[in-house]
Amino acid sequence: MNSDQVTLVGQVFESYVSEYHKNDILLILKERDEDAHYPVVVNAMTLFETNMEIGEYFNMFPNEVLTVFDSALRRSALTILQSLSQSEGVSMKENLHARISEVGSLCCSGWS
User: Fold this and answer.
1) C-beta of residue 20 within 8 angstroms of C-beta of residue 44
2) 3-class DSSP state of 107
3) How far apart are CA 15 and CA 13, in angstroms?
């Protein structure tokens, strides 16, 4: 992926998880274990409907796109964390991972 593609994927995903998964991220930020690994499961169909290019890049460069998604997820979590008051018992988690669901059904949808 080139740098423009990385930037686009990161911006779209950060915006998407901030809007659709804010509560999931808040629950993770409230967890006590800062070293645990925390998944945020994203529905592929909904995400790719937001921006079709993301789906195309995901199909062409799945490993690279997941790495960009993880970075964007951490940026979103940091933004959410910074918007909260300190008394809410939250902390940043570095091991956030985007997990994409329903990917298998995308490749064959419409085929019988």
Assistant:
1) no
2) helix
3) 5
Place of tokens 């409907």: 49
Q: What is the pTM of this model?
A: 0.86
| 39, β-bridge pairs | 97
Residue written as tokens 């993301």? 54
The residue among 85, 15, 19 whose CA lies nearest residue 54 is 15
What confidence tens digit (pLDDT) does each residue in 37-89 have? 999 999 999 999 999 999 999 999 999 999 999 999 999 999 999 998 776 78
Rg value, the chain, Cα: 15
Q: For residue 97, list its beta bridge partners.
A: 39
User: What is the 8-class DSSP label of residue 83?
Assistant: T
What share of the chain has pLDDT > 70, as a percent?
A: 90
Domains of the chain: 1-99 (3.30.1640.10)
The yes-or-no verdict on residue 108 having pLDDT over 70 is: no
DSSP per-residue string spanning 64-76 = HHHHHHHHHHHHH
